[in-house]
Amino acid sequence: YQTFDGDLKWDHSEVTYRILNYSPDMESSLIDDAFARAFKVWSDVTPLTFTRLYDGTADIMISFGRADHGDPYPFDGKDGLLAHAYPPGQGIQGDAHFDDDEYWTLGSGPAIQTRYGNAEGALCHFPFLFEGTSYSSCTTEGREDGLPWCATTADYDKDKKYGFCPSELLFTFDGNSNEAPCVFPFVFQGVKYNSCTTDGRSDGYRWCATTANFDTDKKYGFCPNRDTAVIGGNSEGEPCQFPFIFLGQSYTSCTSEGRSDGKLWCGTTSNYDTDKKWGFCPDRGYSLFLVAAHEFGHALGLDHSNVKDALMFPMYKYIEDFSLNQDDIAGIQYLYGPKTGPDPTPPKPKTTTSSPIGPTKPTPSEKTTTVSTTTDVVPSQDACQIKEFDTITEIQKELYFFKNGHYWKISSKGERKGPFLISEKWPALPAIINSAFEDQLTKKIYFFAGKQFWVYTGNDVLGPRKIEKLGLPIDLDRVEGAVQRAKGKVLLFKGENFWRLDVKAQMIDTGYPRLTDSAFGGVPIDSHDVFLYKGFFYFCRESFYWRMNAKKQVDRVGYVKYDLLKC
Amino acid sequence: WCVPLKSVYVTFPGDVIKNMTDIQLADEYLKRYGYIDVLQKSGLQAVVSPSKALKELQRQLGLEETGSLDQPTIDAMKQPRCGVPDIRN
């Protein structure tokens, strides 16, 4: 391994990072996750911690860009140079840039996370069968609204599991429209547009208006790439047009003709010879996780290694089951030392008879309270100082955090608001809530506290009722988690057991309880909170969460405080 | 149909990577990743022979150190990689 001249390194162990923008190739959640996993590669073997910031200046500023992207080292189009990063320091030092003329995936072809449908955000499964035909990409077959979709298992006809693929008709990213879909046609500088455009931009990113008139409303977002879209060329994001004419010949599939580098390309109009519109055909792409882990090595102070199997070797190589090479470990530990002790767990607060917390300040109504960011903070009202919440749940697409008579909420944009008084919004409830969920069908909100539960429909409340009325055991002292499932079913958790509640029948299904460990392997069986958020199951223990995807794989362990509460 | 097609290479509009010869590719690669045109602290450019630069590149990439632009070296130069120079300037 090598370090930079003077052994450049961070002088603090709590390193911050910020993701400035996203690539159209992957869902933002997948990109967030790839970066988080890439940082974890290094935090696993050093005392370093990595905290994501959502604004301001972070130590490591991460961005995607094309060609000339604002520093003296332009990117070079598809392939070749993939990314670069600067060694630790102020300003641009420590920053990592990724070439967006690459096709960013998880390394083995399109990584397409679905939205909506019934697959709870699972990735597309390619190929999949639909009405006897095999599909290797998202399709609009079987739909009249033009929305591309895919199956999330190998056989849609059998499993009926599906979700919608990224498209500008479904959502946009970045911009100022909170992921709203494009509105077509839209007007920009007096001209009508029926599709995403790069007009008005010099960076080649495709955008659209999210209202009918950009000139008046100024609302816009960037268009996600469809999986069938070409990469780079001069038609980024457009689909191949088959057949297309090239030098008088007709082509019905991607070709490398006309190129000395053997790369496959296609025309994006029916005649390349007249229109000259083209792009590269999608391939396996490059693993954003692997490239990011390498670049973050630079951002932490490692230079290139000449050990071929090391992460810091300069050439890209896809590895399915990645583990850090001993050379990389030796390098990073030369700079920062080894990780000491077990994973950090917060100290438990001492029990005292006199509370250090002052009297509760009057809490403004929800309408007027905003994020608590002042330095003069009462600890009980600063969500970021709370080690363990009474309950966390998603209501109306916002994540609610309850603690001791107060609650906070995080919008889908990551904006935190609160504290609010529980008693103002739901006056029938006690101060401490053990669990809550919103019924997806009726939008009724169920609250559990001790051996009782309440059901709120708007401002109307039913309860308290005893939880045994639902068929839960008489000796059950509380419900600690609730996860909504399809068709009016909700899983209720307590310790190592869970039950399935039929919400319509208001009764636990037969065959329960079941062991949490047998159905949800790899999560703590003493989770004090379980909830569903953006299609993932979250199991919380102290200040940590274990996130489980729709395939019941624990795909992430992180901090409630940083990742969910956005502290 | 089995007669080989005579390939015609064209310059694609918007293509950042231009069709270039192996020597042009090597020249650009060696410069970009710091093997030649190394700036000294005095500000003067040190003269590094292409052969020496190639040897250094081959050593870095774990290739046979021939000092000539052989096929394995050309292939290695076409591989995707990180943009941070191997030799610090």
Total strand segments of chain A: 38
Largest sheet of chain A: 5 strands, mixed
Radius of gyration of chain A, whole Å: 26 Å
* Overall pLDDT confidence of chain B: 81
Oligomer: heterodimer
Description:
Chain A has 567 residues and is α+β, with helices and mostly antiparallel strands. Helices cover 11% and strands 28% of the residues of chain A. In chain A, strands 3-2-4-6-5 form a 5-stranded mixed beta sheet, covered by helices on one side. In chain A, strand 28 (452-457) and strand 29 (460-466) form a beta hairpin. Chain B starts with 21 loop residues before the first helix and ends in a 7-residue tail after the last strand. Chain B is globular, with a radius of gyration of 16 Å. Chain B has 89 residues and is mostly helical. The chains are: A alpha+beta (567), B mainly alpha (89). Strand 5 of chain A pairs parallel with strand 1 (81-82) of chain B, so a sheet runs across the interface.
Brief rundown of the structure:
The complex is a heterodimer of chains A (567) and B (89). Chain A has 9 helices and 38 strands. Chain A is an alpha+beta fold and 567 residues long.
SSE blueprint and pairings:
The complex is a heterodimer of chains A (567) and B (89).
Chain A: E1 2-3, E2 14-19, H1 28-43, E3 49-53, E4 60-65, E5 81-85, E6 96-99, E7 104-105, E8 128-130, E9 133-135, E10 149-151, H2 156-159, E11 162-164, E12 186-188, E13 191-193, E14 207-209, H3 214-217, E15 220-222, E16 244-246, E17 249-251, E18 265-267, H4 272-275, E19 278-280, E20 286-287, H5 288-300, E21 302-303, H6 326-336, E22 391-395, E23 398-403, E24 406-410, E25 416-421, H7 422-425, E26 435-438, E27 445-449, E28 452-457, E29 460-466, E30 481-485, E31 489-494, E32 497-502, E33 507-508, E34 514-515, H8 516-519, E35 529-533, E36 536-541, E37 544-548, E38 554-559, H9 560-564
Parallel strand pairs in A: 2-3, 2-4, 4-6, 7-20
Antiparallel strand pairs in A: 1-21, 5-6, 8-9, 10-11, 12-13, 14-15, 16-17, 18-19, 22-23, 23-24, 24-25, 26-27, 27-28, 28-29, 30-31, 31-32, 32-33, 32-34, 35-36, 36-37, 37-38
Chain B: H1 22-32, H2 50-60, H3 71-77, E1 81-82
